[in-house]
Amino acid sequence: MCQYTTKRQFDNLKMPKILAQGKTIECVSKSNLRTILLQNGIDLYNDGAKVINCRGIGSCGTCAVKVEGEVSAANWRDQARRSLPPHSPTTDLRLACQTQVLGDVKVTKFDGFWGQGSRIVWTPKG
Ligand code: FES
């Protein structure tokens, strides 16, 4: 008999894989994307944003990345910050610090201080 009695308990055991900058990282479901990327040496921030950022409270917007895969819905902080320039609410970026990983994801970083540019800095493969 399975020791996990509910689907929710079983889902919490999933170990999603994150592909970013050539690394494959496993994490616990619902992990914070920013935390996992930084803990694994991924260059989440561009240029001076490595030093000048809000440390994950969702106000600076410099942790913006493109995320493909199963993640939490964008919360109000994510939506509010990305609605302000130089971000645009119409781009498909997410704030890593406001994003929970729910399934396997691929992450891409774009250029610009806020990661708002159109040139790729790194892809899931490197
Ligand atoms: S670290 Fe500042 S918004 Fe994510």
Write up this protein.
The protein is of the alpha+beta class. The chain has one domain: Ubiquitin-like (UB roll) (Roll), CATH 3.10.20. It has helices at 7-11, 33-39, 76-82, and strands spanning 17-20, 23-26, 31-32, 64-71, 93-95, 100-110, 120-122. The longest helix is centred in the first third of the chain and has 7 residues, at 33-39. It is globular. The chain starts with 6 loop residues before the first helix and ends with a strand. FE2/S2 (inorganic) cluster binds at residues 53-54, 56, 58-63, 81, 95, 97.
Q: Report the principal-axis shape.
A: globular
Query: What structural class should be given to the helix and strand makeup?
Result: alpha+beta
> Which oligomeric form is depicted?
single chain
Distance between the amino and carboxyl termini:
43 Å
SSE topology string: HEEEHEHEEE
For the largest beta-sheet, the strand count, sense and barrel status come to: 7 strands, mixed
Number of domains: 1
Which homologous superfamily in CATH is the superfamily? Answer: Beta-grasp domain
Count of strand segments: 7
What amount of the residues lies in strands? Answer: 25-35%
Mean pLDDT: 94
Number of helical segments with 4 or more residues: 3
Q: Enumerate the spans where pLDDT stays under 50 for 5 or more consecutive residues.
A: none
- Could you tell me which ligands this complex binds, including any ions or cofactors? FE2/S2 (inorganic) cluster
In CATH's first tier, which class applies?
Alpha Beta
CATH architecture: Roll
Percent helix, as a range, is 10-25%
Query: Taking Cα atoms only, what radius of gyration do you get, to the nearest Å?
Result: 15 Å
> Looking at CATH, which topology would you report?
Ubiquitin-like (UB roll)
